[in-house]
Amino acid sequence: MHLFFPGRWTTIVCFIGISLLQQMAVSAQESNHAAEVKQIFRTRCFECHGNTRREADINILERSSYVGKDGAVVPGKVDESVLYDYIISDDEDSRMPESPLPPLTAGEIAMVRKWIEAGAPEFPQDVKQPQEAGTDSALINVIGAEYVLTKILEHIEATPRDDRRFLRFFSCNHLLTAGATSQELKENRQALAKAINHLSWQPDIVQPTVVDQDTGTIFVVDIRKLGWQETPFSKIKGNDKSPARDVNLYDQVLLEYPYGLAFENSEIFDRLWEVYLKPARLIRPIPYVRVDWFISVATQSPLYEDLLQLPHQLDDLEHQLGVDSNQNLQNHVAKRAGMTLSGVSRNNRIVERHPSRFGAYWKSFDFQTSKGLQNMFTDPLNFHFAGGEMIWNLPNGLQAYFITDNAGNRILEAPTTIVTDKFSEDKVVRNGLACMRCHDRGMKRFADNIRPAFESLPDRSGLNKSDILRLYVAKDEMDALLDKDEQRFQTAMDQALGETIKAEPLIPTSRKFIDAPLTISQASAELGLKYSSSLKAVFRLPQFTQLGLAGLSTGGVIRRDTWEDYFDQVVRQLGVGVPIAPVDGLTRPDHLADGLASGLKVSTNKRSNIFSPGEEMVITVKNQTGVDLFIELLGTSALGKKVALTNGILSLKNGKAYQFPESGTIKIKPQLGTEFITVFASPHQFSPGALLRGHGVADRFVHNFYVYDHSDTRLKNDPSQLVKKTLKIETR
């Protein structure tokens, strides 16, 4: 006899299914922990516990060398794992990593702890570096160069000719040189997908196309889908103005990119120039940019504001979004909430929601203190705030951001006395990236403290209670609006990433790039060199120690900004390509050519370079380099407007000085702020820069450097000996 109990068996099957799903979720989480810990160990511990140096007979990426019952890591038992004791130690003599390497961050330590508690699961395998043909002799010294350029060339040649000039390429292939798991590559792809869509006014979500399907390290987008093909600039020469039709929004990215390499006498690069670089009219002959750099830098000033062409004034932004804040308040369209405690603001914070052209528009009011007139409970209708953050939906459903002072002027970073960024090492909230990393699911949830407080007060409280309660709406109404806005954002994010994920992909990729110090192994990998041992001797040479890179030769680290400042000189010295330095970049105020920079002196008639309105100023450029120079002067106002101060290129003999103005002085106007004087100098004659100005973009001053000569496969106008120095002048 067979007895059948449908309800019972259904219940058992459900329990089995739930159990399997739970096990799969736990397994996936443990796998993620293992991948993240492997990356932490690779970047923070591999110098001393790796292939070339194996302290304590441990290779930190070989789990079997230290994990086990009697090992440095005892699976599941943090208290018995001496490795954990070393990384949390406050004792400089016993702490790991050893000084001068910096200690692990609190987040990194927490991740190692989770990994040990989970049983110290096996590390995932690294993605293998693809095989290269090795047929292009100009590329054989840089690992990955031939592979990436060949894949790009193949993709270009498979694309209809009329569409080729609109393609732009991104690569994270360099990560494979030092080693990377499939999870890290996936994070890079998803971070790129999210970043490009945060930088677009177009209505549709754009997913980068994978160029190398087998490896997944090269991506391409059609900039027409993002609106980056627009040409907003005009060339300004005196009173004349003409369209700069060859300079589009994306060209600004190339002007800032510090890792560009060209390869002379390369058949592949030459072919790429012929079928892509030349037809696309790129402002610099850079076939691709690194994913980690793009998602970390293009999402911050000045590229963030310029790619979105954001205005400088809040009123102009609201007009662009179809928002009339004052009218919405009068008509009871706007909705408010006030928080005593916020995850970002140090003091009170009030938020206000308006409908906008593309969804929702939120503005926050942040306060310097929570006392006196800045206490939001004193008068929730009329208050004195210090600044704010604006958040609105882009046409594609993701969000854009804008930070202002209390007068509605756009600022690029908020004072840490008012708001902080928990993901940034220096805690500074910088417009763009900081907001993206914080608002990982759209608008942050909050609990209003204003309405409950005034609901309990008598009608004769001295304030207009009915108006306050009408503006500060009930929790159910505000929650419904938040639900709607979160759904709009999440739908767009899922579409961009191709799946629903809980973790924000911009956080690990950008933090690793911006904040993590570089070891010699990482520096070697970024140069495309497989082994770092030979670099230690190189960095002991005088030309490198003078650049501040000596620390790498002794097992120390350097910061990202130092590495980028001198990346071009390192590349040139090692002969691994022709560096295309961002000498015209807004983020590169100084470019110090080896051997000449120290002898070029730029000064004013006041040592502090601080002036008061009505004072007189003179700028002096002294040539003490030992060679004759050609110079050019550029001025930048407090509002970012640029002007050429010299009529073309001037000759400045060795031992001589040039004074600006050539006669008389400059009388300081009553406009407070910071201005800049930039000097370009070279022992070789160069053409004057072109002043580019446009709507919603910063002024740029661009030279015709790095012109590729197809006839002999070489670069012309290489500013290898150009010195760029910028002097900061303040009016107080």
Structure commentary:
This protein has 732 residues and is of the alpha+beta class. The protein folds into 5 domains: 16-117, no CATH class; 140-307, no CATH class; 314-504, no CATH class; 521-580, no CATH class; 597-731, Sandwich (Immunoglobulin-like), CATH 2.60.40. The protein has 23 helices and 31 strands. A 6-stranded antiparallel β-sheet has the order 8-9-10-11-12-13. Strands 18, 21, 22, 23, 26 and 31 form a 6-stranded mixed β-sheet that branches. Helix 4 (145-157) packs across helix 9 (267-280), helix 7 runs parallel beside helix 10 and helix 10 crosses helix 18. The longest helix is centred in the first third of the chain and has 39 residues, at 6-44. The protein is globular, with a radius of gyration of 29 Å. Mean pLDDT is 90; it is low at 1-6.
